[in-house]
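INTERNAL TRANSFER SHEET
From: sequence group
To: structure group
Subject: Cytochrome D ubiquinol oxidase subunit II

Please process the attached sequence and return the structure record in the designated field. Keep the field labels unchanged so the import script can parse them.
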Amino acid sequence: MTDYGPFATEPLFGLPLQDLWFGLVFFILAMFLFLDGFDFGVGALFATRDDDDERETLLAAIGPFWDGNEVWLVVFGGALFAAFPAVYANLFSRHYLLMFAILGALIVRGLAPEMYEQRHDEAWQTWWGRAFVVGSVSAPFFLGLFAAHWLLGIESLVSLPGVVVALAVVALTIVAGVGFLGLKTRGSLQRDMASYGPKAITAYLALVVVVLGYLVVMRPDLGVLAPIPLALVVVTLLAAGGYVVALRRERYTLAFGSVPVLVFAFVGLVAALLFPMIDPAAGLSVSDAIVSILPLNIMTVSAALLLPLVFAYFGILYSTFSGPIDAGESYS
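Return from structure group:
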């Protein structure tokens, strides 16, 4: 038998790897919600446009990015499976239909723009335009439902707190979409899109308040009033205020810069309320569900090598396609 020495019996460099991987899983989820979130938001805002050129501009804005952004969801599933296989199995078996709903929504959202561009008759584009909106709204809705049920240990398909969280996630993606379009559009379209930002952030904050109120009353065991959750709530309020001020002053780079703060605060709040549990419905804590030391060390080394390459790829992608959409550009 091969002797791996301390590498098989002790955490790498004495680090708290189980906690780091818990944080990494939620970091990856936040990256997906941030990057694909503005794609979803643009899809929702697509419903507000009647002009063909404006619709083409919105599609062209996300064209180079959306499929790459979805990779983070695959990475999230892979990281969860690799580090916490029991949790992966439990979540996906308990929420089997919800997982397929998320997958179906993502398929519709990805297919619809491709089909929209294939023919230029009104009925065809109306149908696929609506499909694009439905996919863009339903994907974050189902994702929010999944996150709420994960946190609260709910095993049913739908619940009232889950629906409220799902609506909050949809509102957050519209906030992100407005911020992104502030960078990718010009003129009247840019100003018109910006007008939806304050409405979306107000809806998001209102829904978050409802959820937090529910948790304080019905689930005090989660510790909503603990220092870290309260700090994340304060960060959310500050970022929301900065977002609105930036939009009103037409400082669109600053407005978009507020979006990852809002997204990471939201996902961080879910993680903070969950920890040290990772699967409340099954009674599994992080230490219960983590894999053994040897594979954990191997995965840590692999992640340390691969994640910088992933970030470098996205850096190149976004720098290559930076700047507003020019007249005449299209999705295809």
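Handover comment: Residues 15-293 form one domain. The chain has 14 helices and two strands.
Transfer complete.
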